[in-house]
Design a protein that fits this description.
Helix content: 25-40%
Structural class: alpha/beta
CATH class: Alpha Beta
Distance between the termini: 39 Å
Number of domains: 1
CATH topology: TIM Barrel
CATH architecture: Alpha-Beta Barrel
Strand content: 5-15%
Largest sheet: 9 strands, mixed
Number of strands: 9
CATH superfamily: Aldolase class I
Number of helices: 12
């Protein structure tokens, strides 16, 4: 569907009512295992994403990624609120320095969609998020770290910022002679393709260091025609596109789904890059899979696809110097 609304208007009209969502997709709330109490992590999903859900299917893989369920309240040993132990890795507000050559900037705690498996669903953004007054501190910190040559914008979702603010951040970072790349991690284009505006494409082209966009797509059903068209425009403009996927039980834990996802990403000019094992965050334990299952999927995917379409299967381990291959 083509929208006459801006991406900001689509964001403002995102669905936040669980029962209205169930009615829209034609599913009985009781059959979906919804909790009796309001979720700690509220529902938020744009209508353009809802339209890609299969009507009447309580097991729809897109629906299950966003629907709050009673399973989130089952306390499970080993799952906590800070699974990657990021609390002590923020030398200045709004910045995480976890890896030697890269820093992660979190300009906002907001997201266009609330994914139930989000490893930062409990993150105290109000205490540690980027405020305008901290940007100069962040620039100064990066400048003081000569080994840092890449800045990663994450969050939250950095593409909820205006193009004008992103242009300011990108241009000021590009002035630092050590910076070789700027990377944005975002799920917003997947759920609201219209977020890829002409002005966003232009600012990526104007930035004097390469801009990388890492989208977050978990299932081939998410790759609408509108999204693929926008991704191709970005690629034609010289933006390097990669995808990361979270491996989720009963959503994408099959070779056929992962293979189709890689093929369709490639058709949309996106390089399949990572499949992440689930981070052990409280509230998402029902999505997790045994390590052996993930390794088996990877081996079978290698047999099904050419090597350049096989993403690397990884787990993030607190305080490690890089992602750990499975």
């Amino acid at each position: 569907m083509q929208y006459n609304l801006s991406w900001q208007q689509q964001l403002a009209q995102a669905e936040t009512d669980i029962y209205r969502l169930c009615d829209t997709v034609g599913c009985d709330p009781k059959a979906l295992g919804i909790a009796d109490k309001p979720p700690d992590f509220p529902l938020r999903v744009p209508k353009s994403f809802i339209e890609r859900m299969e009507y009447g299917n309580p097991k729809d893989p897109l629906l299950l990624q966003v629907l709050p369920q009673a399973a989130e309240y089952v306390s499970t040993s080993g799952y906590g609120e800070d699974p990657l132990e990021e609390a002590g890795q923020s030398p200045v507000p709004g910045l995480l320095h976890k890896y030697e050559s890269r820093v992660l900037v979190m300009p906002t705690g907001a997201c266009a969609v609330h994914c139930r498996y989000c490893f930062r669903r409990h993150f105290p953004y109000q205490e540690r998020g980027l405020l305008g007054s901290h940007w100069k501190q962040i620039l100064a910190y990066i400048q003081s770290q000569p080994l840092v040559n890449e800045v990663i914008f994450s969050g939250g979702d950095p593409l909820l910022l205006s193009d004008a603010l992103l242009e300011r951040y990108f241009s000021e970072l590009a002035l630092l002679p050590q910076i070789k790349r700027i990377r944005c991690h975002s799920r917003t284009p997947v759920v609201i393709p219209d977020r890829i505006t002409p002005s966003f494409i232009e600012l990526c082209q104007k930035t004097t260091v390469p801009v990388i966009l890492m989208i977050h797509c978990n299932h081939p059903q998410e790759l609408s025609e509108a999204l693929c068209d926008k991704l191709k425009l970005l690629s034609q403009a010289g933006v390097r596109l990669y995808n990361q996927t979270v491996l989720l039980k009963e959503i994408n834990d099959s070779v056929s789904i992962l293979a189709e996802l890689s093929e369709r990403l490639w058709e949309a000019c996106v390089q399949p890059y990572y499949v992440h094992a689930l981070d052990a965050v409280a509230g998402a334990q029902h999505f997790d899979l045994p390590n052996k299952t993930a390794i088996d999927l990877h081996e079978r995917l290698r047999a099904a696809l050419p090597g350049f379409l096989v993403p690397t299967f990884v787990r993030e381990v607190p305080h490690q110097k890089a992602k750990v291959p499975l």
